[in-house]
RNA sequence: GCCGGUGUAGCUCAGUGGUAGAGCAUUCGAUUCGUAAUCGAACGGUCAGGGGUUCAAAUCCCCUCAUCGGCUCCA
């Protein structure tokens, strides 16, 4: 007898520890050396390949080559075979310290121009690692002592990819090979098992299986369509945040999806963000040439600013917090699109706070408090805070150094006041101001920015915003841009993966499914479902006429948190036999009590 | 946008030059059932789109589109 499929995934796998490279000296050595072995193998099979860099990464390693012909997946097998041969030759790995001149001489001898460029950036001591006598690489190490220390059965080449030299798209396109290497074959097997597990959590797969959203070719890439179930999820999240915002004094606004180019010229978007905007809608060629006409909005800020400046504002009105779930459109490059985490049309849970300079610090803290409380309700714990500052050497920003320094100072004061852990991202700022960003990982460990708070002295300047201060003078407000979710689309993508599709009761599109044992119970379950719906519980009756086992299976596959089985006994006692996804069968519970428990769980963001 | 992979029924996939297949889903019929798959039948495809090679193309080649993994860029 075969176990049901989801029971498989619940079975506890054997505990195999899989340290990340940064946590294991041994893996650092193994992966460093394996990448050298791979480079040696590649150069044997592809003599024209030139080496560049080949570092370890958290789950493996890669090496970038410049080869006249791009590598394809099918080349990996041959390369791996060659690697096994090299490993089996038990080549000693020998470290040699050389002078800069000597390194340069030797690199020129083997004609590796990329290595020469790397050498220029190196500081003493310069070290070379040899694999036996045939191959060496400029490298800081560390390495294993002998290729025999590598286990060929614990090594696997995973994928090929294009990569730019020095990460610069204007420079050479290199060929990257990703691989992984472990101490034992068991670890490799566990690594592969976890990768497959991650694939099962992928929001693109679960979104389709659970019927939350679709993409349709005739609509276009990066433009999700929300189905009824997905829309319930979206609306629930929106309602949740709107309630929080009402409590905190936010004021709702609604603004259009398009505006004249003039608006975005004042804001600076046209100049600094133009490449990310959908093309101009112009009425005629003259207008097109003059960049006159309408564009889809890539951000909501200029619209909220126009509302602010539609009247003369008093200091008594500040802080003014204008909030909107505003849908924006950005012309992302085609290769960057993917699922819900990177789309071309998305809804920002946006708000712009207009504050006096004196209010800035406390309002900023209020916003961070809101964001952290939102994450808490959503049970999101695995995030990092990033201070996203400008790169002073770049020209992609607007405004004065003074404004930037003031804004960056405000953010720094806030995180230090809160004692938050954070890291700095230079060059990650918005074009108008620095940000405090909250970064999450998806199932495949890719990082995405969700929530963000930004301090902005520049747009108030450009739009000449004012308020009348206590003393009657005209003063300039400071703006805080903020979005706890970042975007509904990306948030939902991350949530699906965090929960593996098992939404907490308050978010589940269908909260309760009533399943009859036989058709005699149909009237009863339909009546109970209607009652639950009238009390704000998303309940539905299963009228499919399937056997109980099949109906349960369907409900489990739909990941419905509460299944209520009803047979003659339950009708008799006005109760429901409850089975939850989280804890299995709970037995018969009176209908009134089930309703109460559902309402309690929904109100408290907990399970049934 | 760049490098590589993939695209067959609503979904998951088999089919490598010679008459387009399976399971699930859907519809209909039978069954009236107590916690992860009841039985049977029917329906369903310009093999992503376009062009080419060939007596013959889902299969080989080219272009376009979409999608996936990276790179670059970003909520």
Layout of secondary structure:
Layout: H1 5-10, H2 25-45, E1 50-51, E2 56-57, E3 60-66, H3 73-88, E4 93-98, H4 100-110, H5 113-120, E5 126-131, E6 135-138, E7 155-164, E8 173-181, H6 185-201, H7 203-209, E9 213-214, E10 225-226, H8 228-247, E11 251-252, E12 258-260, H9 261-267, H10 269-272, H11 285-289, E13 294-296, H12 301-308, E14 320-329, E15 345-355, H13 360-377, E16 383-389, H14 401-418, E17 422-426, E18 435-441, E19 447-456, H15 458-462, E20 467-468, E21 474-475, E22 478-483, H16 488-499, E23 512-516, H17 522-534, E24 539-541, H18 548-557, E25 562-566, H19 568-573, E26 575-580, E27 584-590, H20 591-604
Parallel strand pairs: 11-14, 16-17, 23-24, 23-25
Antiparallel strand pairs: 1-3, 2-3, 3-8, 4-5, 5-6, 7-8, 9-10, 12-13, 14-15, 15-22, 16-18, 18-19, 19-22, 20-21, 25-26, 26-27
Helix pairs in contact: 2-3, 4-5, 7-16, 13-14
The protein binds one RNA strand of 75 nucleotides through helix 1, strand 7, strand 8, helix 7 and strand 19.
Written account of the structure:
There is one protein chain. The longest helix is centred in the N-terminal third of the chain and has 21 residues, at 25-45. Helix 4 (100-110) packs antiparallel against helix 5 (113-120). The chain has three domains: 21-193, Threonyl-trna Synthetase, Chain A, domain 2 (Threonyl-tRNA Synthetase, Chain A, domain 2, 2-Layer Sandwich), CATH 3.30.980.10; 213-383 and 458-499, BirA Bifunctional Protein, domain 2; 512-604, Rossmann fold. It is α+β, with helices and mostly antiparallel strands. The strands form seven sheets. An eight-stranded mixed beta sheet has the order 11-14-15-22-19-18-16-17, with helices on both faces. Strands 1, 2, 3, 7 and 8 form a five-stranded antiparallel beta sheet that branches. 37% of the residues lie in helices and 24% in strands. 37% of the residues are buried. Strand 23 (512-516), helix 17 (522-534) and strand 24 (539-541) form a beta-alpha-beta unit. The chain contains 20 helices and 27 strands. It is globular and about 85 Å long. The model is unreliable at 1-13 (pLDDT under 50). It binds one RNA strand of 75 nucleotides through helix 1, strand 7, strand 8, helix 7 and strand 19.
């Amino acid at each position: 007898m075969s176990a049901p499929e989801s029971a498989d995934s619940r079975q506890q796998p054997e505990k195999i520890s899989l340290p990340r490279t940064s946590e294991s000296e041994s893996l650092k050595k193994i992966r460093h050396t394996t990448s050298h072995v791979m480079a040696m193998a590649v150069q044997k099979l592809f003599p024209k390949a030139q080496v560049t860099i080949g570092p370890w990464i958290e789950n493996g390693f890669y090496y970038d080559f410049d080869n006249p012909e791009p590598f394809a997946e099918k080349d990996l097998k041959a390369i791996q075979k060659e690697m096994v041969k090299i490993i089996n030759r038990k080549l000693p790995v020998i470290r040699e310290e050389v002078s800069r001149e000597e390194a340069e001489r030797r690199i020129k001898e083997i004609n590796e121009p990329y290595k020469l460029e790397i050498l220029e950036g190196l500081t003493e001591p310069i070290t070379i690692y040899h694999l036996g006598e045939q191959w060496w690489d400029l490298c800081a190490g560390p390495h294993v002592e002998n290729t025999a220390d590598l286990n060929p059965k614990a090594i696997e080449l995973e994928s090929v990819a294009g990569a730019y030299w020095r990460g610069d798209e204007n420079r050479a396109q290199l060929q990257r090979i990703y691989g992984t290497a472990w101490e034992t074959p068991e670890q490799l097997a566990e690594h592969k098992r976890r990768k497959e597990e991650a694939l099962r959590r992928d929001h693109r797969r679960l979104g389709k299986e659970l019927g939350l959203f679709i993409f349709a070719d005739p609509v276009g890439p990066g433009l999700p369509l929300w189905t009824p179930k997905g829309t319930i999820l979206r609306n629930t999240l929106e309602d949740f945040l709107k309630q929080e915002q009402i409590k905190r004094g936010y004021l709702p606004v609604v603004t259009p999806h398009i505006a004249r180019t003039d608006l975005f010229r004042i804001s600076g978007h046209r100049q600094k963000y133009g490449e990310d905007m959908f093309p101009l809608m112009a009425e005629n060629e003259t207008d097109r040439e003059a960049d006159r006409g309408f564009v889809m909005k890539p951000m909501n800020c200029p619209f909220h600013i126009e509302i602010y400046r539609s009247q003369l504002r008093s200091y008594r009105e500040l802080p003014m917090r204008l909030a909107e779930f505003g849908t924006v459109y950005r012309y992302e490059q085609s290769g960057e699109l993917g699922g819900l985490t990177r789309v071309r049309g998305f809804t920002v849970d946006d708000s712009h706070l207009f504050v006096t300079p004196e209010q800035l610090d406390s309002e900023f803290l209020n916003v961070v408090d809101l964001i952290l409380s939102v994450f808490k309700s959503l049970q999101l714990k695995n995030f990092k805070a990033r201070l996203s500052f400008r790169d002073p050497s770049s020209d992609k920003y607007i405004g004065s150094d003074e404004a930037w320094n003031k804004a960056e100072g405000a953010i720094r004061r806030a995180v230090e006041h809160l004692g938050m852990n954070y890291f700095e991202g230079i060059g990650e700022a918005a074009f108008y101001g620095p940000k405090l960003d909250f970064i999450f990982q998806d199932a495949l460990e890719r990082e995405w920015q969700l929530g963000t708070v930004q301090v902005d002295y520049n747009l108030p300047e450009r739009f000449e915003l004012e308020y009348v201060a206590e003393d009657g003078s005209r003063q300039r407000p400071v703006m805080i841009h903020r979005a706890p979710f970042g975007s509904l689309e990306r948030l939902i993508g991350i949530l699906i993966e965090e929960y593996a599709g098992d939404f907490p009761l308050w978010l589940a599109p269908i909260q309760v499914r009533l399943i009859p044992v036989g058709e005699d119970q149909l009237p009863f379950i339909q009546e109970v479902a209607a009652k639950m719906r009238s009390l704000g519980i998303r309940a539905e009756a299963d009228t499919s006429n399937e056997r109980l086992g099949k109906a349960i299976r369907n409900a489990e596959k739909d990941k419905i948190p509460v299944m209520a089985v009803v047979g003659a006994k339950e009708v008799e006692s006005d109760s429901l036999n409850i089975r939850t996804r989280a804890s299995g069968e709970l037995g018969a519970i009176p209908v009134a009590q089930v309703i109460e428990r559902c309402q309690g769980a929904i109100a408290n963001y907990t399970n049934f």
